[in-house]
Design goal:
Elements (H helix, E strand, L loop, with lengths): L12 H9 L3 H24 L2 H17 L1 H5 L3 H33 L8 H24 L2 H12 L4 H8 L3 H23 L6
Helix pairs in contact: 1-2, 2-3, 2-5, 3-5, 6-9, 7-8, 7-9, 8-9
Length: 199
């Protein structure tokens, strides 16, 4: 623990932020250690619940803080971090909602699920083929980069980090790309088939 000049007293978060802004990595680690648990339990957790999503949002919070250290050093640290954490958690919840919706759309379109009845199974197989053709028709009309983002995330079910690595971009940039891809998919689906692709 970093301490102040007198009696070994611990530095305040604001003092640590000032040191971090001057390049002191240990000061930033100390800020993380003092605030991460509280941010997760009080700010991020109530919004996201799922552990992996909470961890991602926390990581994004501190990446953002590192990118804006001068601002961190010029105010009250905890409220500033809490505001970033809340925004990151809300952004992630919106992304998760979008991904879940489109994963369900593609699952429905591709006819996942089997039937024991041979006649029903044959009908389902035909419907699945037609649905796959619909999805592929829409993906073929999309921007190639958008279509690739959707295939990687929803059809191959790669994690966001894996998708970003395959596309050679940052995870945050992938999130933006994927959101725009979903919008284009929806618009083209309606244009092509005259109905909304919704669950």
């Amino acid at each position: 623990m970093l301490c102040g000049p007198m009696f070994g007293s611990p530095l305040t978060l604001e003092q640590l932020a000032a040191r971090a802004a001057r390049g002191d990595r240990q000061a930033m680690r100390e800020i993380y250690e003092r605030t991460a648990d509280g941010l997760t339990r009080r700010v991020i957790g109530p919004i996201l619940v799922e552990r992996a999503a909470c961890e991602d949002a926390l990581k994004e919070t501190f990446v953002s803080a590192l990118e804006r250290l001068p601002a961190l050093a010029n105010g009250e640290v905890l409220p500033w971090l809490a505001a970033i954490a809340r925004n990151k958690a809300l952004d992630r919840r919106r992304r998760m909602s979008t991904e879940g919706r489109y994963r369900s759309i593609l699952a429905a379109e591709l006819g996942e699920g089997q039937s024991d009845d041979p006649e029903s199974a044959l009908a389902a197989l035909e419907a699945r083929g037609q649905a796959r053709a619909r999805v592929e028709a829409v993906l073929a009309r999309m921007s190639p980069r958008y279509a690739e983002a959707m295939r990687l995330r929803l059809l191959q079910e790669l994690p966001r980090e894996g998708c970003a690595a395959r596309l050679q971009i940052k995870v945050g940039n992938f999130d933006v790309l994927f959101f725009r891809a979903c919008k284009q998919f929806r618009a083209l689906y309606v244009e092509e088939f005259g109905e909304r692709a919704e669950v």
